[in-house]
């Protein structure tokens, strides 16, 4: 491991050597001593991990030297050491970004030692965060995170590919539980913005009277209880992505304020006058049809066109065919691993039962069903009896309308052809009918494969 490189800038050779000797007691530290600010600046290309600066140098003041170091590389921590205890100077330097301000006395050596330890810890944490962000980017490689091989999902992959190449706004639609936030994260963590924040906001979960301050922040004294400034979600996402989930639930009055923010690319905190510039990508999601909401007067048309950008519609699980089995296996493996269980498999009867159920709760429901089945299963195999469906929605049925038996038969066959992307053999197998029967229905135009 490379040594932690420390530059000491001290015009008093004796005092400087004391500090150098004291810090060099740690073999992990490489300590270099300079008597002038000019010497230090000429060696910054060596990339020190931190610099200590005497406030009263003969060639440059400590605050000016800090400014030059900060201009060269703002990531270099600077500790100022002064012979005078001036509170106003200390506060000013700390506000400007100095890591620490120490007064020369008998305790300076130990205080400096502690400062170095804190700086190392902070740098270590920052590196860990960067590594985690990088890993998260790899983790959200969407072809690994969004699981499935159906043609319906392949279309979604193509749209995600287009989305990550630009900063266009993205609007994601789909039933509850289809994975809208997963898609939003996949776009963010595969885009150029992946090293900045992904901020998710559930618009339906925030009380109406709090949502403006949550999104745009507020200034101290803006209202009772605002004892200090608060940064809003949009500012948290600067440089990155803000994900506005369930945007259709937003109040009309707030929609107009959001529209202005999107148009001007700036915001004003509640109770303030300062205009804050924004560089934020907007991804929205809803389970409702926004165009229909516009027609009904529930959503502003101008905002609709602002947030629409690139529309991505997520297919419900019932239209993704055998993706149900791929996802079920994935959830079973994850559950077994996290609970230190042996590998879990599915019987053919269990697979058939999964394929025949419409999953109104989509992927979220499938995950819950599989995890419960994994607990109930005997000897590592999930059977049909282990699968319990507790849908909270009324299941759609093919028999609500008054039709002939032949018409109902065609509807059933068509449903499974859609489910299996036009696979006649799979449909015939599931329905236990001859494939020639289905081919004849196709030939006569009663059902379609595409």
UniProtKB/TrEMBL annotation:
> What Pfam families has UniProt attached to this entry?
AAA_lid_14 (PF25601), Response_reg (PF00072), Sigma54_activat (PF00158)
Task: Tell me the CDD domains matching this sequence.
Answer: AAA, REC
**Domain Sigma-54 factor interaction spans what residues?**
146-375
List, for all copies, the residue spans of the domain called Response regulatory: 5-119
**Would the keyword Ubl conjugation turn up in this protein's UniProt record?**
no
Keyword Ligase listed? The answer is no
Per its UniProt record, what SUPFAM superfamilies does this chain match? CheY-like, Homeodomain-like, P-loop containing nucleoside triphosphate hydrolases
Positions carrying 4-aspartylphosphate are: 54
Q: Which UniProt keywords apply?
A: ATP-binding, Nucleotide-binding, Phosphoprotein, Transcription, Transcription regulation
Protein name, entry field? Sigma-54 dependent transcriptional regulator
The organism of origin for this protein: Algoriphagus confluentis
Species lineage: Bacteria, Pseudomonadati, Bacteroidota, Cytophagia, Cytophagales
């Amino acid at each position: 491991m490379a040594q932690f490189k420390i530059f000491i800038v001290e015009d008093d050779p004796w005092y400087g050597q004391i500090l150098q000797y004291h810090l060099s007691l740690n073999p992990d530290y490489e300590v270099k001593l300079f008597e002038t600010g000019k010497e230090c600046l000429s060696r910054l290309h060596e990339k020190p991990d931190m610099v200590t600066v005497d406030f009263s140098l003969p060639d440059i003041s400590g605050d000016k030297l800090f400014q030059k170091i900060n201009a060269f590389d703002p990531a270099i921590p600077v500790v100022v050491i002064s012979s005078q205890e001036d509170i106003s100077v200390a506060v000013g330097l700390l506000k400007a970004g100095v890591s620490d301000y120490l007064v020369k006395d008998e305790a300076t050596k130990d205080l400096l030692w502690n400062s170095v330890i804190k700086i190392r810890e902070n740098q270590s944490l920052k590196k860990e965060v960067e590594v985690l962000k990088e890993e998260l980017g790899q983790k959200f490689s969407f072809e690994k995170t969004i699981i499935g091989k159906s043609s319906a999902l392949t279309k979604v992959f193509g749209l995600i590919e287009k989305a990550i190449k630009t900063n266009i706004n993205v609007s994601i639609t789909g039933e509850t539980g289809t994975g809208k936030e997963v898609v939003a994260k996949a776009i963010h963590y595969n885009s150029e913005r992946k090293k900045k924040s992904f901020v998710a906001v559930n618009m339906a979960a925030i009380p109406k009277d709090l949502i403006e301050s949550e999104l745009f922040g507020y200034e101290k004294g803006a209202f009772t209880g605002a004892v200090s400034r608060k940064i809003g979600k949009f500012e948290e996402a600067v440089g990155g992505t803000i994900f506005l989930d369930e945007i259709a639930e937003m109040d009309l009055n707030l929609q107009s304020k959001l529209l202005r923010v999107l148009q001007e690319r700036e915001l004003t905190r509640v109770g303030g006058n300062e205009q804050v510039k924004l560089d934020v990508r907007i991804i929205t999601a809803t389970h409702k049809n926004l165009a229909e909401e516009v027609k009904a007067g529930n959503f502003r048309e101008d905002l609709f066109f602002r947030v629409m950008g690139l529309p991505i519609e997520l297919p419900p699980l019932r239209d993704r065919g055998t993706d149900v089995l791929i996802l079920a296996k994935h959830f079973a493996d994850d559950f077994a691993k996290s609970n230190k269980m042996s590998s879990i498999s599915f019987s053919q009867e269990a697979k058939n039962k999964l394929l025949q159920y419409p999953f109104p709760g989509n992927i979220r429901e499938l995950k819950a069903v599989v995890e419960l089945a994994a607990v109930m299963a005997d000897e590592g195999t999930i059977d049909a009896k282990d699968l319990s469906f507790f849908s909270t929605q009324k299941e759609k049925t093919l028999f609500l309308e008054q039709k002939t038996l032949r018409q109902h038969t065609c509807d059933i066959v068509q449903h499974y052809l859609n489910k299996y992307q036009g696979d006649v053999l799979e449909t015939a197998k599931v329905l236990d009918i001859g494939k020639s029967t289905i081919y004849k229905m196709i030939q006569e135009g009663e059902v379609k494969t595409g």
